[in-house]
Amino acid sequence: MTRLSWALLAALLAAPAFAQDATLTRISGPVFILPEGRVGYLEAKGGEELLFGDAIRVRKGGTAHVTMKDGGAVLLREETLMTLLGTTRRKILAVKFGEFLVGLKRRLKAGESFKVRTPAAVAAVRGTLFWGKSDRADQSSAYAGFGHAVAVRAQGKTVVVDPGMTVTVAFGAAPADPIESAVGLDYTKNFMIGGSLQGVEALAETDKLKP
To answer: What values do phi and psi take at 182, rounded to 5?
Structure first.
């Protein structure tokens, strides 16, 4: 082997391995991926590895299930655009518009954070199941809790959304006071693919949800 070949081999062995930060576990209907730095979207097939900086676009009639590296699940409905941001310890889901269901299957450790950012607000959680929607037209947001509490912050005000409650946030305004939710646990069925919710339904605190 030549000196140049040895040098190339050494460089390859020394290069860091890029492990995925999430996986597009399952899809139904039209779903597309925009890898960070790429100009055009790629049609998803399911099973694709995702890195922070990648975007997912679920078009009309589609549904997507994303599994985070730590086991958390993010379920997306049709007409949703979400970008994975942050780091392994400080994750951010940037939802420009659309509907999502988030289930964290373990409590976050000290120094870890998990946030969902929409144009209207930021929701922070430590281990929970919750639904959210960012309206494409007026950029308002809504969140409903199913397990543990979600802290929603906008315009310097934070409100806590407990299981069975909903909060709405108008774009450019502080969150409204939480009210009894009209979004029931049955609504999560809209995120199913092949009858599966990736196990997030087990995170619901059904004893705190009103029938």
So the answer is: -95, -5
Residue with tokens 């087990």: 202
The whole model's pTM is what? 0.88
Distances (CA, A) of 72 to 4, 6, 21: 44, 42, 11
Alpha helices in 23-167 (DSSP H): none
E strand or H helix that includes residue 22 = strand 22-28
Domain boundaries, the chain: 19-205
- If residue 11 lies in a helix (H) or strand (E), which one and from where to where? helix 3-14
Closest CA to 185 of 167, 203, 168: 203
| CATH architecture assigned to 19-205 | Sandwich (2.60)
Between CA 200 and CA 209 the distance in angstroms is: 16
* 31-90 pLDDT tens trace: 999 999 888 999 999 999 999 999 999 999 999 999 998 778 999 999 999 999 999 889
Do 32 and 45 touch, CB atoms closer than 8 A?
no
